[in-house]
């Protein structure tokens, strides 16, 4: 009997082909809890992206599971401790979509600077409104990067080409490394006070949830534009809505939300908020890389071989 690989979210066809050559591949909608629990019972491997919650209940139902693979960077939707306790290996594809995520943050930043989404909706709605959509240049502005990990670094390197002044908050990075990147390390309060644009590039952990809340948004430079293409909940949504309403924050570009999927948010009512449904990793290139990386790791794990860091 071939091992069963259960794919719970969209995966690149190239990766499915690789897996189908060796295993029985089954598919399920990971957001359909009942279906997931039923299907995982017969699976040796489970592959997810960000929408499927792989918690203790799923891991308990998956009595034959040997490996859970996350076709992406973050592992916040996988209960690693529960998996480890059951001897289930957890793998991800930590570099697969970092370029795509950084590019998405830049797209959102530029869209907030130039009202791209609202102007599109206005023109397609039959209105030619030039004076309504006067934006700001990015050149010469201070860009605050919260989190200088892999994605934050790619974002900063690209923003440098726009002629920005880069500052960053990251308690874990060495000042020399930041200096090499042309980025000045500052405390979070200083970053909030000085930045014209802020982009968040952090994983979702108990330490980072709500990192930018009411108090922090009270410190920002008036007119700041804020981008989050990392994880929902890092910026408190209610506090952000209040800051937008009061005009302290001039715009926001959001790819991620505290609850996903969602079609409702207090933030969707603002003209100066551009939103996308968690598309940071949704490029052909990133999906190929993520899919092939986890397909490789799943194969090694099911073959009982050592799985190196991807
Ligand atoms: C990631 O963590 O890499 C992304 O959020 C993956 C995804 O798009 O599901």
TrEMBL record:
It catalyses: (R)-2-hydroxyglutarate + NAD(+) = 2-oxoglutarate + NADH + H(+); (2R)-3-phosphoglycerate + NAD(+) = 3-phosphooxypyruvate + NADH + H(+). Its EC number is 1.1.1.95. It comes from the Bacteria. Catalyzes the reversible oxidation of 3-phospho-D-glycerate to 3-phosphonooxypyruvate, the first step of the phosphorylated L-serine biosynthesis pathway. Also catalyzes the reversible oxidation of 2-hydroxyglutarate to 2-oxoglutarate. The keyword NAD applies. It is an enzyme of class 1 (oxidoreductase). Pathway: Amino-acid biosynthesis; L-serine biosynthesis; L-serine from 3-phospho-D-glycerate: step 1/3. Keywords: Amino-acid biosynthesis, NAD, Oxidoreductase, Serine biosynthesis. It comes from Paractinoplanes aksuensis. Belongs to the D-isomer specific 2-hydroxyacid dehydrogenase family. This is D-3-phosphoglycerate dehydrogenase. GO terms for molecular function: phosphoglycerate dehydrogenase activity.
């Amino acid at each position: 009997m071939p091992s069963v690989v259960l794919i719970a979210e969209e995966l690149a066809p190239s990766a499915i082909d690789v897996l189908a050559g060796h295993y029985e591949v089954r598919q399920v909608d990971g957001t359909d809890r009942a279906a997931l629990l039923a299907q995982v019972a017969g699976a040796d491997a489970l592959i997810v992206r960000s929408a499927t919650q792989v918690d203790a209940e799923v891991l308990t139902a998956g009595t034959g599971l040997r490996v859970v693979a996350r076709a992406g960077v973050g592992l916040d939707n996988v209960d690693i401790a529960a998996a480890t306790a059951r001897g289930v290996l957890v793998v991800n594809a930590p570099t697969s979509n970092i370029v795509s995520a950084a590019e998405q943050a830049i797209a959102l930043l530029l869209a907030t600077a130039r009202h791209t989404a609202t102007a599109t909706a206005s023109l397609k709605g039959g209105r030619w409104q030039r004076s309504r959509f006067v934006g700001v240049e990015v050149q010469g502005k201070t860009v605050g990067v919260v989190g200088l990990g892999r994605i934050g670094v790619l974002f900063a390197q690209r923003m440098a080409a726009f002629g920005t002044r880069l500052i960053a908050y990251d308690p874990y990075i060495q000042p020399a490394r930041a200096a090499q990147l042309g980025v000045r390390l500052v405390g979070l309060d200083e970053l909030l006070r000085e930045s014209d644009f802020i982009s968040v590039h952090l994983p979702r952990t108990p330490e980072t949830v709500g990192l930018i809340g009411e108090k922090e948004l009270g410190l920002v430079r008036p007119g700041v534009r804020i981008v989050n293409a990392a994880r929902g909940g890092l910026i408190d949504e209610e506090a952000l809505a209040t800051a937008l309403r009061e005009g302290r924050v001039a715009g926001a570009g959001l790819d991620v939300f505290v609850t996903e999927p969602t079609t409702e948010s207090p933030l969707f009512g603002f003209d100066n908020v551009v939103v996308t449904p968690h598309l940071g990793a949704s490029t052909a290139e990133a999906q190929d890389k993520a899919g092939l990386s986890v397909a490789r790791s799943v194969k090694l794990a099911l073959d009982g071989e050592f799985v190196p860091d991807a």
